[in-house]
Design goal:
Blueprint (H helix, E strand, L loop, with lengths): L2 H31 L4 H4 L13 H17 L18 H35 L11 H25 L6 H12 L3 H10 L3 H10 L3 H17 L1
Helix pairs in contact: 1-4, 1-5, 4-5, 4-6, 5-9, 6-7
Length: about 220
């Protein structure tokens, strides 16, 4: 593992934490705008990462997904993880803003991730390829910005998928409830405990190509071209 690979580890971890923690905060912040104070009462609208870090999802899983493939002979691993979900009382949100408000809460994290990816891709256009004389700070900053673009795109695409327990499924459920198609919402609610199994199946099978890799590649090509 060379120096650039080593430098990529902290930049990827920092980018992942910014992406997943901000994603969760946005759910709570939009819910707060519709009168739900649950997240605020639990101190979950704070930008303090310590109140959002999940020991398994924010530390153990990212380390395993990054290093385990490399230990098994792959050229590199990937980062996957999550923060502790921000508590939201959707009944309060729906009472104050209807199902449209619930849809906004569901999509808030995805919008945050896409905004960050776009913002840092714009910043990236003003930066140049590092030269031999560049400072370590510049190289670190450049790698961090690239990681922020990539990881936020991956999280946005992943959460858009209608996987039980994920934002895409929540959004579809509230759309269905708005039009009184309650069977769809019931299906996603019953399937929610199996969401992580669905994720593993997608990541470990050829399904990852059309569902994840192709849309991620398309967005990254658009933002980084």
């Amino acid at each position: 593992m060379n120096f650039i690979d080593l430098l990529g580890i902290p930049t990827a971890i920092i980018a992942l934490l910014i992406a997943i923690i901000g994603h969760e905060i946005m759910h709570g912040w939009v819910a707060y705008k519709y009168g739900d104070t649950t997240a605020k009462q639990h101190g979950r609208l704070s930008i303090n990462p310590l109140v959002h870090i999940d020991p398994i999802g924010s530390i153990l899983v990212p380390l395993m997904t990054y290093f385990l493939p490399m230990l098994l002979g792959a050229s590199s691993g990937f980062l996957f993880g999550w923060a502790k979900p921000v508590p939201v009382n959707m009944q309060t949100v729906i009472r104050n803003g209807g199902y449209n408000a619930a849809m906004q809460v569901s999509l808030a994290g995805i919008v945050y991730n896409l905004f960050l990816a776009t913002l840092f891709s714009v910043i990236l256009t003003s930066m140049h390829e590092p030269q031999a004389q560049e400072s370590l700070t510049y190289v670190f900053t450049l790698m961090l910005i690239i990681a922020l673009v990539k990881i936020n795109v991956v999280l946005a695409v992943l959460n858009l998928l209608p996987i039980p327990g994920f934002d895409g499924a929540h959004f579809i459920s509230y759309v269905a409830m708005k039009f009184r198609v309650f069977k769809v919402a019931e299906f996603f609610a019953k399937a929610e405990p199996y969401g992580m199994i669905v994720i593993i199946i997608i990541l470990m099978t050829p399904l990852k190509m059309p569902l994840l890799i192709w849309p991620v590649s398309t967005l990254l090509n658009l933002l980084l071209s």
